[in-house]
Specification:
mainly alpha, Rossmann fold, three-stranded parallel beta sheet, 12 helices, binds thiamine diphosphate
Length: 309
């Protein structure tokens, strides 16, 4: 078996971006060759996984049973093209196997990952399963094996609605598992449409009134894409809304304003929408409305900002 290319450990962010591009290409190539699969779900997580495997994951791909290895679980198992493209990138699966094996009967590159592959701990694909499995592995790491490995679990944002995910989070908190890291790929879409995050819907409503907002998804390999922010702030004359679906503390608002003040307009009008009260219970829409971060609140904040002088 080929060994892990040296270039995939400790890579810099430019190399990670290049690797992510290759993972996207291979995800599309393999699923196109099979005529089925989930290429887009794979592409949205490519940056995250490129940074993870190139900079953080401690893993000897030639020795998957090593006690020292971290664990990588694709809870959104339908993104299997991404996992298999990673296996190609680290040199343990050939391009030929990827292109002729993915989703073919009898092949080990099944539509959803299974432990028939030595780099896969648990079978996933039924959404909501991988994180609970990850909790189990992390419990073993902390209390049974007493080893310092970390457990990285990739989840989808729509998948987060599964009850089993919340039970897993509850147990991870109860048993205090700092060795468990859930990465949520917030690509805004589930199978049939947008998930609970509504910034795009607010922009549509504003556009209907001829108010043209720039929606910036801060998701990228670099934490802050200053160039894009500056370009958008120029169009909106320094008027800006930062909407965050969590407490304001430790969020992105100050990073965004710092980046803008350093590089862009020296005058900004900023509205920071975030969850400021303890959330209660209710539907997703009700909770967003109660926290003041739904489309309606973003819409009114944008209209108020237009009057700011
Ligand atoms: C329990 C379960 N229900 C439904 C499905 C079918 N399904 C496959 S992918 C998907 C959407 C997943 O959306 P998200 O979690 O946001 O991941 P994304 O593909 O957007 O990254 C659904 C509903 C499934 N695999 N498992």
């Amino acid at each position: 078996m080929a060994s892990t290319p040296q270039s995939l450990t400790g890579i810099d962010l430019a190399e990670a971006a290049e690797l992510a591009a290759q993972l996207r290409v291979d995800s599309v190539r393999s699923s196109t060759s099979a005529g089925s699969g989930h290429p887009t779900s794979s592409m949205s997580a490519a940056d995250l996984l490129a940074v993870l495997i190139g900079r953080h994951l401690r893993y000897d791909w030639d020795n998957p049973r090593s006690d020292a290895n971290d664990h990588l679980i694709f809870s959104k198992g339908h993104a299997s093209p991404l996992l298999y493209s990673i296996c190609k990138a680290v040199g343990v699966v050939s391009d030929e196997e990827l292109m002729t094996g993915y989703r073919r009967f009898g092949s080990r590159l099944e539509g959803h990952p299974t432990p028939v592959l030595p780099w896969v701990d648990v079978a996933t694909g039924s959404l909501g399963q991988g994180l609970p499995d990850g909790v189990g592995v992390a419990l073993a790491g902390k209390y049974l094996d007493r080893l310092p490995y970390r457990v990285w679990v990739l989840c989808g944002d729509s998948e987060m609605a599964e009850g089993s995910i919340w039970e897993a989070i509850d147990k991870a908190s109860y048993y205090q598992l700092p060795n468990l890291i859930a990465i949520v790929d917030v690509n805004r879409l589930g199978q049939r449409g947008p998930t609970e995050l509504q910034w795009d819907l607010a922009a549509d409503r504003l556009a209907a009134d001829d108010i043209h907002a720039r929606v910036i998804d801060l998701y990228s390999v670099k934490p802050i894409d200053t160039e894009t922010l500056v370009a958008a702030a120029a169009v909106t004359n320094g008027r800006l809304i930062v909407a965050e679906d969590h407490h304001p503390e430790g969020g992105l608002c100050s990073a965004v304003t710092d980046a803008l003040l350093e590089a862009g307009p020296q005058k900004l009008w900023v509205t920071h929408l975030a969850v400021r009260e303890m959330p209660g219970s209710g539907t997703g829409d009700e909770l967003l409305a109660a926290a003041g971060i739904d489309a309606q609140h973003i819409d009114s904040a944008a209209r108020d900002l237009l009057n700011a002088t």
